[in-house]
Amino acid sequence: MSIHINAPKGAIAESILLPGDPLRAKYIAETFLQEPKLYNEVRGMLGYTGLYKGVPVSVQGTGMGMPSMGIYSWELMTEFGVQNLIRIGTAGSFHDDIKIKDIVLGVSASTDSNYALNFDLPGTYAPSASWELLTKAENASKNLSISFKAGNIVSCDVFYDQRQDWWQKWRSMGTLAVEMEAAALYMNAAFNKKNALAMMTISDHFITGEKATPEERQTSFTDMMKLALEIAVS
User: Fold this and answer.
1) Which residue range forms the structural domain that includes residue 78?
2) Please, which pLDDT band fits residue 213 given cuts at 50, 70 and 90?
3) In a domain, 10, yes or no
């Protein structure tokens, strides 16, 4: 077991879904997985392993922000041998044609974070998704008739940003949406030679001001969950 994940070796599958909300992890395990078993509840970050279409799949809450994602994804990769990590979270849209409940995949993740300093790189790093998982996402999307948008997203450290219209600068560069975890996940995966993909359902819209309810964020984004599970077992 690791510091933050109280699981014995072999309890966590090679492919894992990573919602920020631990109650979303519980919902996914109880709704979609056969024979789900709780392997972690340290700090309330629930983790489960079960079967989806006969294949072992795990789901683990990670909390909010890059420091929290950085901890959980690192331990999953280095202590438990997880190979494929799929973030399933929420994001805020910057564009009229990306609406509430649409799914966005982060092909790359810009960031305002200093997380990359950890790797002592002699330049600016561009965190990117795994091509293998992106290809599986495209195939699963066709099979399930679940559409998504894909492109650059931005992972930000601050939720309540006080800078006026800060998001419009990201929008001007074609950035699709904002969230808070993907860049750290992608950097950890690259360093440890694992596969990672961040997919988000739009829960907030910067242009229209629309917001999903807390209950909707926890349980109603089922298309994203189904798509992620198909990727995990393909």
Assistant:
1) 15-233
2) confident
3) no
Among this protein's residues, is 96 annotated catalytic? no
d(CA 195, CA 74): 12
131/160 Cα distance (integer angstroms): 32
Active-site entry in 96, 157, 161, 204: 204
8 occurs within a structural domain: no
Q: Is 226 a member of any domain?
A: yes
Structure tokens at 90: 């929420």
Task: Report strand pairing: 34-40 vs 47-52.
Answer: antiparallel
Tell me: pLDDT of 220 over 70. no
Domain of 79: which CATH number?
3.40.50.1580
Give the H/E segment covering residue 131.
Answer: helix 131-144
Domains identified in the chain, total number? 1
pLDDT category of residue 217 using cuts at 50, 70 and 90:
confident
